Amino acid sequence: MELAACPECDLLLNPHQAAVGENAHCPRCGYLLQRPSKQSIERTLALSIAGLLLMLPANLLPLVGIKVLGTSHDGTLWSGVFTLFSEGMWAVAVLVFLSSMLFPLLNIVLSLLVSFYLHFNKPNKYLSHWMRWLQHLKEWAMLEVYMLGIIVACVKLTSMSEVKFGLGLYAFIALIVVSGMLASHLDGYLFWRHIRRLNNKL
Amino acid sequence: MKTNANALSRGLVRCHDCGHLSKVNTPHCPVCNGHLHPRKPKSLQRTAALLLSSYALYLPANVFPIMTVTRLGSGEPHTIIGGIFALIDSGMMPIALLVLVASILVPMVKLLGLSLLVFSVYFNWPINARLATVVYRIIAFVGRWSMLDIFMITILVSLVNLGGVAQVIAGPAATAFACVVVLTMFAATSFDPRLIWDNPNAYE
Lengths: 202, 204
Ligand SMILES: [Zn+2]
Ligand SMILES: [Zn+2]
Fold this sequence. Notes:
The structure holds two protein chains of two kinds.
Chain A: E1 4-5, E2 12-13, E3 24-25, E4 32-34, H1 40-60, E5 64-68, E6 71-75, H2 77-86, H3 90-119, H4 127-137, H5 143-157, E7 162-165, H6 167-185, H7 188-199
Antiparallel strand pairs in A: 1-2, 3-4, 5-6, 5-7
Helix pairs in contact in A: 1-3, 1-6, 2-3, 3-4
Chain B: E1 12-14, E2 21-23, H1 43-63, E3 67-71, E4 74-78, H2 80-89, H3 93-122, H4 129-142, H5 148-159, E5 166-170, H6 172-190, H7 194-198
Antiparallel strand pairs in B: 1-2, 3-4, 3-5
Helix pairs in contact in B: 1-3, 1-6, 2-3, 3-4, 3-6
């Protein structure tokens, strides 16, 4: 039996395949080692396709709008980035663009690529690169934080104008739900085991 | 069987990315071809440098206005704390509390907590390693939520753009604050929690 080690305390472990619904924690530091999910690869594939479809309306349709003196203004994900950029706040604009648009998209595209190749049992020499990028990007996609920002902004705006929610907001919320499910169904331990098996076929 | 040894003390190195164990001094992981290091390279130095830069930027982030609200021609600059007071004044306590936690408390706890972790490793303080690991995990988890203020301003500047009637413009503190968030997130990822367990004086 092959050994494993805990990533956060380096304790040497004798891994056992955890059953679905069972969370395997490190006995020394409590790190969550494995959280297997049922049909992890298929669910990841299905969720990333759903996420990809939601990406376009969430990015382009208005999220929220205000109505002042008879004229209404809508805000999309993209218009926020664009306004910051045109005000000369390019550093903030780039950060917002990356964390609310590019990284969430890459997150879904990479999940799609990896789960696609694993599902159809096709080896690809970039599989481990994609998986590595996916793991590093995860914490930089911040859709749910953006949602909280929308809520706070709306509360601030209610004192000066009428606030209405756009169609894009529903797509955006759906995208957050899909991304959250994607994160909980993607079983990294299982994925790496399959990638390893496929890499041997190369 | 329960082992009680560090992988490194048995001559094994864990791949950061795929978790595969290799013998010490193997340059690349045989599974994913990633670089192998027993611990994150120069973890303490990198974390300390990133923390120092964050401390330096924390001051302008809180002193300068993060946004300016113009209504009918008269501008009103808001600092982060000023924005929280404005929310309290308009009777929105829960939201004010939320912004206080995300913009003031979280960055402060991150900076101080990570600094203490770096000190505890560097000076081999006798600390509870399990507790310190939990502290590290919390710091790594909450960091991204500080972006709340930046996202809120992004939405305000794009919506409240009505020329002379009302306009919101982002201020210089926004850039400084964004840098603090990014730098502290990098500081958290460059710190290697296994160093806590390598400390000979730490206990479980
Ligand atoms: Zn552990
Ligand atoms: Zn590897």
